[in-house]
Amino acid sequence: MKHIATVSILTLITLILQASAQQSQTRGLSFSGIFESSISTNINTNDDNGRRLSYGLEEYANIRMQARIGENAAFFGAVNLIAAAGDYALAAAATGADFADGNNYAATIELERLHFRIKGENVDFNAGLLRKPFGYGQVWRPSDFLNPPNPLRPDARPRAVLAGGAAWHPVEDLKLLGFVASGRDPFAQDNGLVGISADKHLSRGSAQLLYALEYSDQFPGNAGNMLTHRAGMSVKADLILGFVIDAIYAYNQGIDDKIDGLSFSAGFDYSLLDAKLIILAEYLFNGASSSTSISGGGGFANENYLYTGATWRFSDFTSAGLAVITGLDDASFIPLITFNHEISQGVSMSLMAQIPMDRNLLTGDGNRGELGPIPPGLDAGSHFYFEGKIRLRF
Known about the structure:
This protein is mainly β. The chain has helices at about 1-20, 25, 85-95, 360-365; strands at about 30-45, 50-70, 75-85, 100, 105-120, 125-130, 160-170, 175-180, 190-200, 205-215, 225-240, 240-250, 260-270, 275-285, 305-315, 320-325, 330-345, 345-355, 380-394. β15 and β16 (about 320-325) form a beta hairpin. The longest helix is centred in the N-terminal third of the chain and has 21 residues, at about 1-20. The radius of gyration is 22 Å and the shape is globular. About 25% of the residues are buried.
């Protein structure tokens, strides 16, 4: 039944796209998107030191549509079409995605964006399933608390939230934003958040202030629903180096040690040799109940992390990079090796390899680290991961 439903939805989308394309000139409707064809290999390991080579295949398309409505309004939508096998299918199924099983693949359709925007002379309004980004950090970005990025997945498209907001531009380069969003539990009838932010852009930098109030039970130690206050700031400055500071503090009655609510990052980037070499470094303090922690919606368990990386641009079309994400508390780290090449206009290729390491791997002393091959609390992990991808933009 799932397979039939998936085919029916695909057919419906195809018919809509065909009909819309015929009316695109008269209605101001446009389409764009990304298609990615990916292959991966993974050396799995377990507590018994058993190792096994696995693979994954994935075909992914993100189809975006935009329709102008008069002079001042627009509609936006996007869907993800995914067909996967092997490691990709298992990873997607682990997130709870509803996949239809085929003979040699699993497939799903995901609604990614669905929102509208109305632009006024000094006030803009938008609402729907949309992205609500905050902060200027390039790697960690703690103040982006609705969906903090993961540097291990730098190409992942940020997830949307059901939200709405009104932005007021009282003067040039100043934006005041008020916003609301639904709670983390989509079936809860009394969860949600409201917030405000202010952005000021200057000739050599930008600054942002943020405050949000959330009513939810999705926090550790909560016996019931409670209010969580979040206050954040993000600053970037383009001087000789490009500096960035990004921080947010969460407070509620369920956080016993108040420092646990803090997530703070600071770093810099610098280009030299006629911008052929780009160096980037960012430090993260990750409080146990902060926005970047596992319990707070992020992906990290320890407190102190350091990202260091360098990218070499061979030309405008080809670059290679080496970065290391280090868990300073347990001396575990993951080198990331990347290579990118633009084959032709709109067509690019990328290669990426990750090699988890920790003290136990290097010395056999039993001290397993969070970023190592087998993190503490787990009985299996990965020694090596490689991914190759062809991307087409249309």
